[in-house]
Amino acid sequence: MLKIKNLHASIEDKEILKGINLEVKAGEVHAIMGPNGAGKSTMASVIAGKEEYEVTEGIIELSGEDISELAPEERAHNGVFLSFQYPVEIPGVSVTNFIKTAINETRKAKGLEDMPAKDMLKMIREKSELLEIDRKFLSRSLNEGFSGGEKKRNEIFQMAMLEPKLAILDETDSGLDIDALRIVANGVNKLKSKDNAVIVITHYQRLLDYIVPDFVHVLHDGKIVKTGDASLALELEEKGYDWIKNELV
Amino acid sequence: MTEERIMELKEKIVSSYVAFENEMDINSDIHDIRSEAFHNFEKLGFPTKKLEAWKYTSLNNVLKNDYSIFANKDNTVEFADVKKYFIHDIDTYKIVFIDGKYSSFLSDTTHDGKDICLLSAAFSKSKYKVVVENYFNKIAKQDNMTSLNTAFANEGAYIYIPRNVEVEKPIQIINFTTGSEAATMVQPRNLIVVEQNAHVQIIERHQSLTENAVLTNAVTEIFAAKDATVDYYKIQNDDDNASLVDNTYIEQKSNSVVSVHTFSFGGNITRNNLNFYQRGEHIDSILKGITIIEGKQHVDHHTLVHHIEPNCESHQDYKGIYNERSTGVFNGKVIVEKEAQKTNAYQQNNNVLISDKATINAKPQLEIFADDVKCSHGCTIGQLDDDALFYMQQRGIPKKEGKALLMYAFANTVLESVKIPEVKQRITKLIATKLGVNIGFDL
Amino acid sequence: MSKYTEDDLREELKTKEYEYGFYTDIESETFAKGLNEDVVRAISKKKNEPEWMTEWRLEAFRVWEKMEEPDWANVKYPKPNFQEIAYYSAPKKKPKLNSLDEVDPDLLETFKKLGISLDEQKKLANVAVDIVMDSVSVATTFKETLAEKGIIFMPISEAIQEHPELVKKYLGTVVPTTDNFYAALNSAVFSDGSFCYIPKGVRCPMELSTYFRINEGGTGQFERTLVVADKGSYVSYLEGCTAPQRDENQLHAAVVELIAMDDAEIKYSTVQNWFPGDANGKGGVFNFVTKRGLCETNAKISWTQVETGSAVTWKYPSCVLKGNNSVGEFYSIAVTNNYQQADTGTKMIHLGKNTKSTIISKGISAGKSQNSYRGLVQINSRAENARNFSQCDSLLMGNECGAHTFPYIEVKNKSAQVEHEATTSKIGEDQLFYCNQRGIDTEKAIALIVNGFSKEVLNKLPMEFAVEAQKLLEISLEGSVG
Q: Residues in domain SUF system FeS cluster assembly SufBD core (chain C) (predicted)?
């Protein structure tokens, strides 16, 4: 599904990603772990197409198509979903209105009619129940005054609504208490299928107790330096990132 | 009637200017500047309420007096009589004027590695020529009152701090008026140049020593070079018959920090024109004020922060408490030019009216031409929190003291940034006096 | 003036520069240009007005002659030559009709283009519409339904004939003829407008609406609206404005007076979309409007406006809160693009006790435009316990426009509580990226964010208007961000 080859990216002439290679197949869950500043969030932003980052080398393929020249919204239309570490606030725009616009714009890009209001409402109801979201919450302004947990739950709610091929969860566990973490993880697990894939970016092993990865990659200084199965995450938790750093020396 | 008397005063100024000019060295470089300013004033006359900038402040009652433009003799005062007007519990440099004339007796100046002395000296001595040429009247506006001051500019403080010099103690600039005339007009002119990475703290005060009418029309120009730091404190607690038009102009270069705190507790009419021009990046301009007035006092804060270049900040915080028939005016303008991206400009003006006859007029303005900026202003007019007052009373604090505490707390955000502890103490004491209580505010 | 062909029209609509910029080819009767007492008399005569009305106009004219055009607003424009304007222009086949079937088909076509299909509105929206074209009222719908409730809703020219006692009693009581330069001019030359009277205790069952359009070239539009809500009554009034695209500037100087008697409520909504001039700042309407409402005890007046049009706007819908417990509200969205200039805001004059006012102003500037908020909150010494809350937010798009805030706050009573807040912001890059990531393109994202920014005001509009206003916002800002 996703193929990243020798990806280099920099911001303001500072190279952050220094040759990433990654292949994610449909039905898989990959975890990207690594210390602060390793380039985890940068990798997520680059896949999603944030313009501040310049891709200097390498390709990003989604379902066999090179997406590295596409605008962020075109990547989204192709099924890339990024759950933001810090979701932005958009005052005055309700969650419902926002998601409605996002869905219909995506449908438009695919040459489809707007989703009928009835279907939209039904879907919103289903997905909000899945994530244990209070209906009142949906009429509030997007992310404005949301608690950390609410913001993250809202991200996963949008993911559920948009049904992406590839979901990248950037530090979705940060700022969540244990109950919220469980709800978010349950949501993700229920949305998982053989046709889509998930990349979980996290600093800690905690989230991986709930979303069990098929592969764990350790990112350090802009490169994937180690790959293993779920047990690697446990090993990291136990030994810390210095272990990897020392191993590299 | 009033108009005629104002005309008479203007005529008197015109004839005084002729006399003044005769006394001065006609070849002086300053001559042209004065002469131009004089013609400017002649053309503009005194400000009237028809001018938008003077919409809420009328000088008519002040200008009715028959001011003497120059003190006709050298007056002296005893230090013991005026000690209380100084911040005397710490060592400071002092530049003191009595009725517009320098008092060497009360002053403590220096030329040791920096110049803390007199403008008249700077005008007359060739070694100051370059500084005077480069800075004098370079940022002062051409408006009515500034032009009038410039026309007669001759005496005031001259402060020049060279590169990397941190002035070891604060400088006090004090202007006394003795009231030897029925009505006195004084026009101090200060020039302050703070070079790169230099640091200075200045305390300024205008003080009338009698009940005779006084009109002070002061102009201060401050230049802060790169990385310079200037802390300026204006203490205004004058007699009820003394009025002040204070015009302060500040130009800042990159990375400089200039703060001006204005404490207005007294005087008849006080008008503070405070103007900041930011010519460089990463500049911080801080404008703060506390106004607590009563009787028929009138205080007008008229501020301007001109954001000309990118990545600068300005912070304005003015608090006002108005009792009896007093009037407060806050007119704060922030201009952000289109080059001034990433500007952060904050302005806050909060007021409490504690009498039915008091008035507040506020006009906080933003003029923004750049899109990537954060600018906000807030202005409130309200009362003290009754619940908080009741809470204090319930715990045994009398109502009067409780009110005073609340008002002090209200004004306290401004005091927090005062860097000289003795000034802070003095202001705290003044506030207690103003509020009619005898408590220390150890908040 | 060359006439537009259908092709021109199609082309124009395609470019969407100004959606309502077509010229209706209706035969008009237009006075020669220029203004003097004879012209004022002629207008009055044309309208078959009683003597008192003629005198009232002449008095206004004499005052106006001595006045100077104000220049304190933050706008720059060539001062109109008031002798170069025709002060009267009316469709010649003056339709005084009872049913829409009798309306000139060209005119009906115009309304269709404006998006106000009267038939449909009649059926669906339940809105009674009075249409003023080049200052003359051409159609008032729903008159009979309203008459059953005793509601008077008709062109003011007819009201002068049919209800002279009411017009005489209230006209000029809120905005005196001498109030300001444009108000005086309007008083002298206004040719039509709407009059509305809601009797005691009556709740007007439908929205009342006036649609204004300047059609003829070289004319000014001077309409006059008077709304009187008698004790305990309620009315919601809508006003929409458009004008065709022309190279020269057209002048619009209207006066709106609202009177809300004890316990009455008036909700007045405006969607103003006068031609703003082209992308180079050529042409466009000069919109100099005086709007003011008077609140008696317990009364409430609420102004809501969405301003996207006009080359120059000078407009301050105000409330005089005379009665105790009266309430004034002002909700405004002003969008300026290209070379537009807007100086708009409100005045809240608190005279009575326990009076309350709310001001929410949203300014959006793009292109090379200048957008100013100018407001006055005045708490007089007898206005015990007055409350005001003001919020003025500006959104800047691009780096060649300006956003300005000039609030005046004057408080003479210690029990007053006044709060004013203003912020300036731009659309954040991170907001756009977030929307992009969810599949929303930048243009749409801007529309979404602007709508969110304006929501507090849009919510105050009646439903049908809100939809139109949202569309207008989008159109006005199209292409403003590269």
A: 212-453
